[in-house]
Write a structure and sequence with these properties.
The chain is an alpha/beta fold. 44% of the residues lie in helices and 15% in strands. The protein contains 16 helices and ten strands. The strands form two sheets. Strands 2-1-3-10-4 form a five-stranded mixed beta sheet, sandwiched between helices. Helix 3 runs antiparallel to helix 14. The radius of gyration is 20 Å and the shape is globular. 49% of the residues are buried.
Length: 341
């Protein structure tokens, strides 16, 4: 795994900005609150995938950078592509800094399927992003197609969580914009179940995330058991430099649609506090996030566990959220059609 200067620079800017917000008196007040406390880190997924691995690593290292050094405990609240967890953190959970959201692509959900949404993504207080949930057209090595050109001529069966999840939306969008022949079967909840279905030949593949494969199936990558054809992120991955992004492949008229969806991928690897958390605790959280992402011990464990990192400051993360929630109704309508919503 590679750590570039370009990846580190944004988090250092965020660290400087967050640190400037905290006076010694405020830091002391924050320490008094967090000392002996337990902070719950809630994510909208089941155990067994990359979110769990990231949560475990952050739970070990992030407390060292929060005044008072609280204990961080991961909490799993699957449902509606992360919406259930976001609803809880926004309107039910304590707004005192003891509850933290490990986000999914919740700004996208807010614009594309607002039914049941009880939060406003722009009102979450974002601490920063530690990566992006870079999903990819991933096929088992025994699949009947090996290249993107072949995928435009022969149908394959690929699994997905549900129609309202990115695992479905990306594949549907590939069919619409590239002319691929992917038959999407929903109902496979969780990365572990999608991986098992692919391995057992029940499906040919799925829109796996790079974090899922590198963290939970490094042997598959080493032994070339999977074939990755397209990257659905904003940029190519340093570990997969020859795999093009969908943004590179689509026609110019389709790029705003793809860019809208891809802009939500960094928020799928981000932390946030609820809208009512006091400013001093938010500042402490932002500082702790940035310091953790620059901590040599954290970076060593992330590298050892094959966890991809692409840090973004809280300012950059907030800007991506605003970009999505402020998109025109006309663009959102096109996105809904193109992703089968």
């Amino acid at each position: 795994m590679k750590y570039s200067i370009g990846a580190v620079r944004p988090l250092m800017l965020g660290l400087a900005g967050a640190a400037a917000m905290m006076s010694p008196a405020i830091a002391q007040d924050v320490m008094g609150f967090y000392k002996g406390k337990t902070v719950t880190m809630t994510m909208g997924t089941r155990p067994g995938g990359s979110f769990q691995v990231y949560a475990q690593v952050f739970a070990r290292h992030m407390p060292n950078h929060i005044p008072g050094k609280p204990t961080i405990v991961p909490n799993y609240m699957p449902g509606a592509g992360g919406t259930k967890a976001a609803n809880y953190l926004y309107s039910v959970a304590a707004q005192d800094g003891s509850q933290m959201l490990m986000s999914h692509a919740i700004p996208l959900a807010q614009r594309l399927r607002p039914k049941g949404i009880k939060y406003k993504a722009e009102k979450f207080q974002w601490l920063g992003a530690f990566g992006a949930i870079t999903q990819m057209i991933t096929l088992w090595n025994g699949a009947p197609v090996k290249t993107l050109d072949q995928l435009k001529k022969q149908e394959v069966i690929m699994s997905a969580f549900a129609k309202n999840h990115l695992t479905y939306q990306w594949l549907y969008l590939a069919n619409q914009t590239l002319g691929t022949k992917i038959k999407i079967v929903t109902g496979y909840r969780g990365g572990a179940k999608n991986n098992l279905a692919m391995q057992q030949g029940e499906t040919h593949g799925w829109a796996a995330s790079w974090g899922n494969l590198s963290a939970t199936k490094p042997d598959w990558l080493r032994d070339k058991k999977v074939n990755i054809l397209v990257n659905f992120g904003l940029e190519r991955l340093a570990d997969l430099p020859d795999v093009p992004t969908l943004l590179e492949l689509v026609k110019p008229e389709d790029r705003p649609i793809v860019d809208f969806i891809a802009s939500g991928t960094p928020i799928s690897r981000a932390f946030a506090y609820g809208p009512g958390v006091p400013a001093d605790r938010v500042a402490a959280g932002r500082t702790a996030m940035a310091k953790t992402l620059a901590d040599p011990n954290f970076l060593a464990e992330a590298k050892q566990r094959n966890l991809p990192l692409r840090p973004r400051s809280w300012q950059e993360t907030t800007a991506l959220v605003d970009k999505i929630v402020n998109a025109s109704p006309e663009l959102v309508a096109k996105v809904k059609t193109a992703t089968g919503q």
